Queue: 4 jobs
Job 1
Amino acid sequence: MTRHPAPFVDMTREVEESLVKGGPVVALETTLVAHGFPHPVGLETALAAEQAVRDAGAVPATIGLVDGAVRVGLTRAELERMALEGAHKVGPRDLAPVLADWSLGATTVAGTLAVATLCGIRHFATGGIGGVHRGAELGFDVSADLVELGRSQVCVVSSGIKSLLDVGRTLELLETLCVPVVGFGTPVLPLFYTGESDYEISARVDTAAQAAALCRIHWELDRRSAVLIANPPPADLALAPEEAERLIEGALAEAREAGIRGQRVTPFVLGRIHAASGGRSEAVNRALIVGNAGVAGAIAAASPDG
Ligand code: PSU
Ligand code: MN
């Protein structure tokens, strides 16, 4: 590990070298490792995502908080700790508190974007972004992912918006926050477990090179926001829309009954859906994360300055 100029940030040599040379680097988050899957699926998914980034010709930078430092590029042993030790779920507001008490922290999309920006990393892959939760007009549960997407110059590859959210309102807020939502080989918004939806999106690209060009133009126009690349889940594993909705409704009802609130909502609901679908939602979730990592790697590799 070498000490990065930003305080509290440790980068692996590999990541630092690639960044210094303007090479392709893809940030990966750890909340999905620690809270998105039962063990050992989270760990396996993280390792497969890193490999997909490498296969596409880029360097993976999996981010988490370990022993008072932000680590950019985790070792396998650290990833294992993330998956096993009940790491804190770390959004942007949690970075300082978790660093201050030296606990283990798994960064969300928002937390990871904050770190990527600090380090000058321009590409990032996840499963599905957070957004406006259903019922947020009463409960105010709107993910900090949206705030950071609105102010991070990062190309974010996800399988659209998690359909357990209020997708329409999330799209509205993304527009308000000046974030282009770009279909990757699709004219409609993928909904995480399903590739199809009735939501149209503002733009479409069909290749990594086109995505890279679009991002470059967005930032050359001095736009300070992210570009969201919406990549559908693999068709052979995707769930039927009606089935996905039924699973989501069931899991949200369970969450309400159990009084689950705040940061625990998303992990709880994903877990209940995995259980109720007999593992099929888990299989598509895992595959889409790895697919998104590959697409982010290809876009990074097609970008002139990583
Ligand atoms: N994508 C997945 N599984 C996940 C997540 C994304 O396939 O668990 C995580 C991301 O870290 C995202 C978080 O930031 O869910 C959203 O949490 P919340 O709704 O509490 O902001
Ligand atoms: Mn929330």
Job 2
Amino acid sequence: MSDLVAVILAAGKGTRMKSNLPKVLHKIGGKPMLEHVLQAAETSGATKKIVVVGFGSEKVEEFLGDRAKIVLQKEQLGTGHAVLQAGALLEDFVGTVLILCGDTPLLEGSELKNFYDLHKASGAAASVLTASTTNPTGYGRILRGAEDEVLGIVEEKDASTEQKAICEINTGIYCVEAPLLFNVLKTLTCDNAQGEYYLTDILLKLREQGEKIGGIITKDFDMIMGINSRRQLAEAEVIMRTKILNKLMDDGVTIMDPASTFIEATVEIGRDTIIYPFTWLEGTTKIGTDAIIGPNVRLTNVEVGNKTQLQFLYGHDCRVENNVTVGPYVHLRPDTVICDNVKIGNFVEVKNSNVGIGTKLPHLTYIGDSDIGSGVNMGCGCITVNYNGKKKYRTTIEDDAFVGCNSNLVAPVKIGQGSYVGAGSTITKDVPANGLGVGRGRQVNIEGWAEKYRNS
Ligand code: UD1
Ligand code: CA
């Protein structure tokens, strides 16, 4: 077995969140807090991850899948009791246990690795990662002796007024050698203000047993922020968002208004792309160079090429290639590919369709289950009639066809290459290449009709 195993505590209800959802599944940066902690544990070098679940365990287990080993803490009797539950999976383990909380989503793996290295180098049996802050409210305080050595940790609810003034806090992250850890956990008691088995008490106990304990200070307080309430969730969101946006700006992306721009960590954006306000970019979205995105654009899992301009639209699970302009008020739905140089104007919806190079869908059009070639012009108000109430059918429009305004193309149907469709047509039969399809009632003019009508 490897030297470093991570135990992640995720059994607590998160009472202060006032939620039916387990706290660790609340999202930050579009992903559950626990996902961020798992990732940090993975980058830290831990080869095995054990997650302690309890409140809402089915939901947490469903989220975890086979990403980690799972142990159940039936009753939430405290953080010490929670770690003890992992003991059964680590009976023969000799090495370091990295203890993490599922409610510290801003953690970074590199910081954990550094902490582990320092712990190893110090030769301590147990080390706690600490941080200094001007507002220590809610955290356990680190007690240090005359020579600055760590004596133990006191929880806020058990602290004296003097202890409450201490500004060095417990991040809730520890490296502890096994099997020592599980032996000392068995000796914990719950005679404290919360009546819980506090993990924090192991430091004092190990010290009493003559073991070396240590405290390593991290400089980045934001990174270890614990989320206990919705207010803190929002604070952490801002911190995470700012980090993501700063990195994009450092890499050459213009973000006009960071306060109204929401971009997930998974999103990639090329140089010299400009992001206008009120833009949401999510999931696997990837944007090329020199694009202009926004204002008011939401993209979920969308691939966007270079020099493409999108405004006021929602796109999901689709691809928009290079030098395309789309918007305003457009919905691009799954399995759609918009090729180079296409122009899509206002009030257009495209679903499960391919739109070829240089084609124009300027206004008020529905394209569903269609294959449109290149150089096609769809007039205002055209509809591909893809659904008969039972089944869906495809429409094919070949290169350079011109579909007149307000036409219905009733699928399955093919509009041949270079052909024309007369405005106002309902097309139910294929139109041959270079032909004209007209499907509408003929106009009749009746001379003098209006005069007669007025006088009748
Ligand atoms: C804990 C620490 C505190 C530290 C703070 C850092 C203790 C006693 N206190 O306080 O010193 O400053 O974290 O953020 O450890 N959990 C379980 N089972 C339980 C109880 C909790 O799995 O029975 C899990 C929770 O899901 C959570 C983590 O442990 O992920 C921490 O619990 P929480 O109640 O948030 O502890 P804090 O009061 O924040
Ligand atoms: Ca907490």
Job 3
Amino acid sequence: MIEVNCDPKMDEARTAEILQEIAHDKMGGWLSLPRKFDMGEFVRIKEAAKKIQEESEYLVCIGIGGSYLGHRAIIEALRPKSETKIIYAGNSLSRRELDRALGKVGDHDFSVNVISKSGTTLEPAIAFGEFKKKLIEKYGEEEAATRIYATTDRKQGALHDEAVAAGYTRFVVPDNIGGRYSVLTAVGLLPMAVAGVNVDKLLEGASEAVDSVLEPAAKYAWMRFGLGEKGYDTEVFASFEPATAYFNEWLKQLFGESEGKEKQGVWPASVIYSTDLHSLGQFMQEGRRNLWETIIDYPTDETNAKVVQAVRVAHTEGGIPVLNIGVPSYDEMGFGELVYFFELSCAISAKLFGVNPFDQPGVEAYKEELRKLL
Ligand code: PA5
């Protein structure tokens, strides 16, 4: 079970009210998802993953933000074994990166999973255009269509319309789940299953978390809010496992997009120790005291555990609050639980700050400006 080492002042009635608000929110579908997963869809996801593994050396996962970070975070953390390797594309507008991804696929057999809830985001749309061309050149139009898996809205958007017209295999991003809360839907499950992640265990971990993380998640959320109110405006997620760097990236998106609006929120930053103790450690120890540190305490080896201990003592003495989130296991069950814990903490915390955890008007603003320019 996830444990947090803080005991903040909490208003239990407000917490209960917030949980009700989330449960009734039109974007609160992730709250009950692990226990209400559409098993028909789950079977289809696993069958598609098997087919991709049988016929492709590479799966190109095209998507950005919530349609990308969650599955990459877990795949990189667990480094599962699979003959089919994952390549990520469409997560920037760099031509250099796109060419690199195209070059990596080269003449190998490949399939494409294009993931976009809206179906209109520019970064994945451009990358998809390039990879679709490559598929058609290699396999012809008909077979190319059987190698494209589109994860998108149930009934609308450019990607949805194209997928229906061309007959791609389709998976749905549920209406009531936004991008950054969608890692446990087909958005994340298909790439993870192809990469060899045990998605049954992942969902089981999340399902157990539905009850078990309620208390630690509420405590952590109230602690964040209390620190924010005291003027701490930056939270540094600290991990001692380099393979979890992308989990930190997912966390930054989750908290940044959920809380950072209406001039509210805490800036989410991240470090990987002990590597960053030799770069950012100086600032953490003696720099401006506007931040706190949240250690994500994965089970680790003895030496690394000593580093965790040393950091905790040194940084506390250096005058920054140090929170600790104890993760029970470094496996699918543990990450399932962790994902749910952070989603819940984040939603409660955003509500405490008085903002809507589930919209992202600022991201939409950027997309709109870019559309005008291009
Ligand atoms: O969390 C979010 O809603 C965003 O980060 C989106 O996931 C991101 O902008 C990509 O959007 P889409 O899935 O519509 O392409």
Job 4
Amino acid sequence: MKALITGITGFAGSHLAELLLEENIEVFGTMRPRSPMENLTSGVQKQINLVECELRDNVAVRHTIKTVKPDAVFHLAAQSFVPTSWGSPEDTIMNNIICQLNIFEAVKDTGLTDTKIQIACSSEEYGMVYENEVPIRETNPLRPLSPYAVSKVSQDMMGYQYFMSYGLNVIRTRAFNHTGPRRGEIFVASTFAKQIASIEKGIQEPSIKVGNLGAKRDFTDVRDTVRAYYMSVLKAEPGEVYNIATNKTITIQELLDRLLALTDKDIEVKTDPARLRPSDVPILLGNYDRLRDRVGWEPRIPFDKTLEDLLNYWRERV
Ligand code: GDD
């Protein structure tokens, strides 16, 4: 199998590249000249084929797809941070929708009728979820609460439309929150872990800045998430949509407490108003029966192990 990963230098992309190499798959990945490379170890960099491609440029995307002729595309590249989408909604919406459109058009026009395209949709699409709707099934109404979520609803619906209109083998995965080593420092578990590591090193006062601790989220380890992406491409039904979740939820307060339990430092917790959002998704708790029944995926890595690995990742870096 020849696989093309968009966003290979990113958090999930780098973990997926490692998994596919272990499976002896030929890996190609798109990057931009300014993409930071530190998520890809030198060993991985030697084994993959990096292609410079600006996904907003339909000519560049067409050229990449025509040249690589992938059997599978994992479309992970995106503006993925919810708060950024409040600041520049146009950029998030343009970027996330147009890049995917360019990929779909290129696969269609190149005539790659057998190519599978996994698209990284999101639990954020469910948005305003009521307590009586959890655990959330794929059939739940989508009530997006941020420009980012709107962009993901659009990607999701575009996946459905290209499957129905042209028979493109699109597999829509709605990943719930995922974290682990290499997670960007702006996301919740990573910003907390990095601050704890900085406090341990004495480069930050023993005070941690936080946002809304009342939100509830369903966290998967990123290494389980990318395994779900891979298994979906092998076994999921094109046109269909699948939750990637654990069927468990924790409050952000609990997440913070579990990280704080991993350090012997005494740390004060301070709300930073800049970390609060115009609206926050109150609860995400996903039912993943469809994915388990169809592809045989189950989460494997316990969340405490994920948090420990994440904190150790930051301890080695700050
Ligand atoms: N980032 C951040 N920083 N979030 C905080 C903080 C903080 O200091 N304090 C509390 N939170 C809360 C947020 O308000 C939110 O309720 C929750 O922690 C998770 O925030 P993020 O880690 O930024 O992730 P997200 O839930 O907004 O979105 C992530 O998950 C989606 C899937 O559900 C991203 O990975 C998205 O790309 C992904 O689609």
